[in-house]
Task: structure prediction
Amino acid sequence: MVGFHQARRPRQTTGARLRRELSWPRPAGVLISLLGAALIFNGAVALADSTDASVVSVASSSPSLNTTPVTSQALVAPADPASTAPASAPSSATATATVSPDLAVSGVTAAPIAPVTTPPVLLVKGSVAGAPVQKLFAARTATAAAGDKTVLDVFNPKSTLVLVNKRNALKPLAHVPADLVTPAVAVGSGEPGLLRAEAASAAERMFGAAAAQGVSITLMSSYRSYDTQVGLYNGYAAEKGAEAADTTSAHPGFSEHQTGLAIDIGDGKAGNACDFRSCFAETAAAQWVAAHGADYGFLVRYLTGSEAVTGYWAEPWHLRYVGVEVAQDVVALGIPTYEEYLGLPGAPGYK
Result:
């Protein structure tokens, strides 16, 4: 009995027997090992798929990770919403690579760049920017008066461009030109002929050219002093009233004649029936200066239809010297008044 008892295996607990049955190489142990290997393999495959998907998402949503070359313009463009990860599960790689549309490549906030503007250069003082006279002087390449700044000022009485009308008086009111001379032209009235030297020389050439074509132009009136204009205007006002006088005669200090740059002409062959009358427009002298006066620097200053701008009835006999370049430009552009050529308001009445 003793020997049999010693030959038996020790008594095993239930847990020990279970471990023994499930251990390798018993069938149960083999089965468990295979199941464990399958689970580990499936987990590895799932992890690999997840990693590949994350890389693809990052590459498609971040221009910096794209293998295709991109331009700087693409870098500052807003990201495509369809290519970014859902808001509920953003990845750190995606959040880092996405370029903010508010940032430039350097990372500095992009702000609109205001264009650099410079004020227009006004070559002719007193005239407005963009006026025809400004364009003329900007385009010209040379002029005899380029160095004389007083010429390029329409409110300087010494300038041949000076504007005198019912809004703009001479300064000073009793201004007297310093270079008055007597032009060598035919005179048709008892009034002495005086003009500024430049205008006098131009008048001599114009009268001579007309005579060569058989047209007789005479000088009826030219420079008038402030005191002379006082007497002349008062005479018209006493005769027909101030309102009517204002349509044909200027107040003292507001007359172009006082500049020494204006003349009234007559026709030496037509008689004096139409002198200072509207019918003067039908004379050969009036028609010749209307067609050729600009070639010598003279404009017919007060035209029919421009009364609302100039403030005067048409005067086909009244010529104003402004220089050849300006006069020809006014005529070529078809601008009816000197005020409009300068880009300045009309002067239908006194201020």
